[in-house]
Write a structure and sequence with these properties.
By secondary structure, the protein is of the alpha/beta class. It contains 11 helices and 10 strands. A 5-stranded mixed beta sheet has the order 3-2-1-4-5, sandwiched between helices. A 5-stranded mixed beta sheet has the order 8-7-6-9-10, sandwiched between helices. Bound molecules: 5'-O-[(R)-(carboxyoxy)(hydroxy)phosphoryl]adenosine and zinc ion (ZN).
């Protein structure tokens, strides 16, 4: 089985071809950092226009690299939400048009399902159920992944996502966009215990997240402390929150066979180290897909397409794009 996957829900435009035996024949991706940098964050209208320009050539390049044509594809999987609606529509409408023109089925994929199933693409032996910490710019959730289409959400953020907190802190410290990698680089030069910062919700019995208060406290301290120490102390606070909340979720889901992380914040070395220790403490394997598969990409959408199509799950061409779509 061969699936073409399309992704355009935030600021990455991507196309990929993936087989049911986990071969990634090609994956192409265009970032938009330069277009959004002057604004210090993703501007939805700019993102949507950039997707329109980038997607067609990316699909052609992906087909060419894989040395296949649309006729060889079994189905077309496109992100149908959640995300910035203009961008989601670009990818979904493109997927529908290709499906109609080539007479192929359409598989509408929930972007979060793409992240949730991505570790099964890189880890053939990963069995259900597993606990997934999904930490990106738009999402901060703990999900028990029980099967295809069976996701039990144990926790979410009551305000900002962890990646959003990194991005806002970077902006406060004048470190540029995207913020996460910049904060991590600056943090490496500072003392993570130099400045006391809050750890919102740590110790609470439900594994939810909150980062707005932490960010506000950083805002109050900017200019009073060295940026390196602020970045390092902020990062440590986020790591402590993620580890504590994940520990509570593990206690609520003793059936989990592995601890898995996905989303852009999974690129952070300190986050990975804390989760590695946590998993080891629980006698569980810790699984982090390769970085490019952790951040937004089309291979994970194609893979979710493989998993859904194998179960006979396809969607009608009048399916609407959804800005909000909880798993
Ligand atoms: O999954 P992703 O590429 O896009 C979505 O948000 O869906 O995640 C991007 C987020 C951004 O907020 C970025 O600042 C954060 O992941 N990020 C990081 C690091 N690299 C990316 N956060 C902390 N440390 C990093 N090294
Ligand atoms: Zn994402």
């Amino acid at each position: 089985m061969l699936i073409l996957g399309l992704e355009s829900s935030c600021d990455e435009t991507a196309a990929a071809l993936v087989t049911d035996d986990r071969r990634i024949l090609s994956h192409r991706l265009a970032r938009q950092d330069e277009a959004h940098r002057p604004f210090g964050g993703v501007v939805p209208e700019i993102a949507a226009r950039a997707h329109v320009e980038a997607l067609g050539p990316l699909i052609e390049a992906a087909l060419q690299e894989a040395q296949v044509t649309l006729a060889d594809v079994d189905a077309i999987a496109a992100t149908a939400g959640p995300g910035l609606i203009g961008g989601v529509m670009v990818g979904l409408v493109t997927g529908k048009a290709l499906a109609h023109a080539a007479n192929k089925p359409l598989v509408a994929v929930n972007h979060l399902e793409g992240h949730a199933l991505s570790p099964r693409l890189s880890e053939p032996d990963l069995a259900f159920p597993y606990l997934l910490l999904l930490v990106s710019g738009g999402h901060c959730q703990l999900l028990l992944v029980e099967g295809i289409g069976r996701y039990r959400r144990l926790a979410t953020t009551i305000d900002d996502a962890a990646g959003e907190a990194f991005d806002k802190t970077a902006k406060l410290l004048g470190l540029g966009f995207p913020g996460g990698p910049a904060v991590e680089r600056t943090a490496a030069l500072g003392n993570p215990h130099a400045i006391p910062l809050p750890r919102p919700l740590v110790g609470s019995g439900e594994p939810h997240f909150s980062f707005a208060g932490l960010k506000s406290d950083v805002a109050r301290k900017v200019g009073k402390f060295a940026p390196e120490d602020l970045a390092a102390s902020f990062q440590q606070a986020v790591v402590d929150c993620l580890a504590d909340r994940t520990r509570i979720a593990l206690a609520k889901a003793p059936e989990a066979t592995a601890l898995v992380v996905a989303g852009g914040v999974a690129a952070n070395t300190a986050v990975r180290a804390a989760l590695t220790t946590l998993a080891a403490d629980h006698g569980l394997p810790f699984i982090a897909p390769p970085l490019w598969l952790c951040t937004d990409n089309a291979a994970m959408i194609a893979w979710a397409g493989v998993e859904r199509f194998a179960l006979g799950l396809t969607d009608p061409l009048d399916l609407p794009a959804r800005p909000r779509w909880p798993l």
